[in-house]
């Protein structure tokens, strides 16, 4: 059982910043694959970023250079630092975890948080 809880969402103006947190309880491994996804109303959930067990991070093209995924030293909290936010970043953001597969694919992540809303106004 992997339990994830996101926080840190909110409403900001374009160009602003937010840092999302994802607290995981009972991680099965210190090298768990972690990802961030987002879902806008009426749209399919899309990949944002992944932190591979090796520490390598990958990003969706539209957020690369603006967003940064990281985790604390203990590995039980995942972060998504979001800078230079744009209205198109508006979505509900979800953290996800996997202990077997690691990619940008939703289907590789069996464990999900409840989501936290990010709204960016122009």
Please give a structural write-up.
- The protein is an all-beta fold.
- The protein is built from no helices and eleven strands.
- The strands form two sheets. Strands 2, 4, 5, 6, 9, 10 and 11 form a seven-stranded mixed sheet that branches. Strands 1-3-8-7 form a four-stranded antiparallel sheet, with no helix packed on it.
Topology as a string of helices (H) and strands (E): EEEEEEEEEEE
The number of helical elements comes to 0
Residue fraction in strands: over 45%
* Global shape: globular
- Major pleated sheet: 7 strands, mixed
Low-confidence stretches: none
Task: Tell me the radius of gyration.
Answer: 13 Å
Please, what is the average pLDDT? 92
N-end to C-end Cα span: 40 Å
Amount of helix: under 10%
Broad structural category: mainly beta
- Work out the number of β strands: 11
Quick description:
The protein has 122 residues and is mainly beta. It has strands at 3-7, 10-13, 18-25, 33-39, 46-51, 57-59, 67-71, 77-82, 91-98, 111-112, 116-121.
Describe the SSE topology.
Blueprint: E1 3-7, E2 10-13, E3 18-25, E4 33-39, E5 46-51, E6 57-59, E7 67-71, E8 77-82, E9 91-98, E10 111-112, E11 116-121
């Amino acid at each position: 059982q992997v339990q994830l809880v996101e926080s840190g969402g909110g409403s900001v103006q374009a160009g602003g910043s937010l840092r999302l947190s994802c607290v995981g309880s009972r991680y099965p491994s210190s090298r768990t694959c972690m990802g961030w996804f987002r879902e806008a109303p009426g749209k399919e959930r899309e990949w944002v970023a992944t932190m591979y067990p090796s520490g390598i991070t990958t990003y969706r093209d539209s957020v690369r250079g603006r967003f940064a995924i990281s985790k604390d030293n203990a590995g039980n909290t995942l972060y998504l630092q979001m800078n230079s936010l744009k209205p198109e970043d508006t979505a509900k953001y979800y953290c996800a975890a996997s202990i077997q597969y690691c990619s940008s694919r939703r289907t590789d992540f069996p464990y999900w948080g409840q989501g936290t809303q990010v709204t960016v106004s122009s």
